């Protein structure tokens, strides 16, 4: 991954770990990538629903949330890496505990 993709992950992880308007949707989006077996989106349409919900955040954050989600989607679709291999295992564990307590 290139630096801007890492930065996009960092921002989305921070958002997902927080208590923002769209934190749960961003957490679901990231957890789907982290473990599709446990946190699957039922279809590609569901991914786009998350994108549409987050569209409101585009205006609140200068478009950065949406742009970051697109960058991460590019990484997800490439299938080239996984969270543990790029150093995000602890972050994803924290997101999991925040949104699905006791499921680790």
Protein model, in words:
It is a single chain. This protein has 104 residues and is mainly α. It has one domain. The chain is 67% helix and 0% strand. The protein has helices at residues 3-17, 23-34, 44-60, 64-78, 89-99. The N and C termini lie far apart (27 Å). The mean pLDDT is 77.
SSE order: HHHHH
Please give the share of residues in helix: 55-70%
Q: Can you tell me the residue ranges where pLDDT is under 50 for at least 5 consecutive residues?
A: none
Total domains, how many?
1
Strand content: under 5%
C-alpha termini separation:
27 Å
Number of helices: 5
SS content category: mainly alpha
Shape: globular
**Could you report the average pLDDT, rounded to the nearest whole number?**
77
Radius of gyration: 13 Å
Number of E-type strands: 0
Strand count, sense and barrel status of the largest sheet are:
none
Task: Please summarize what this structure is.
This protein is mostly helical. 67% of the residues lie in helices and 0% in strands.
């Amino acid at each position: 991954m290139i630096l801007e993709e890492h930065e996009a992950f960092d921002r989305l992880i921070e958002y997902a770990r927080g208590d923002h308007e769209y934190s749960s949707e961003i957490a679901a989006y990231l957890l789907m990538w982290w473990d599709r077996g446990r946190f699957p989106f039922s279809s590609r349409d569901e991914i786009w629903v998350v994108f549409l919900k987050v569209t409101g955040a585009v205006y609140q954050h200068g478009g950065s949330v949406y742009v970051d989600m697109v960058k991460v989607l590019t990484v997800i679709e490439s299938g080239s890496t996984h969270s543990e291999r790029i150093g995000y295992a602890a972050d994803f564990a924290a997101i999991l505990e925040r949104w699905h307590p006791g499921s680790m």
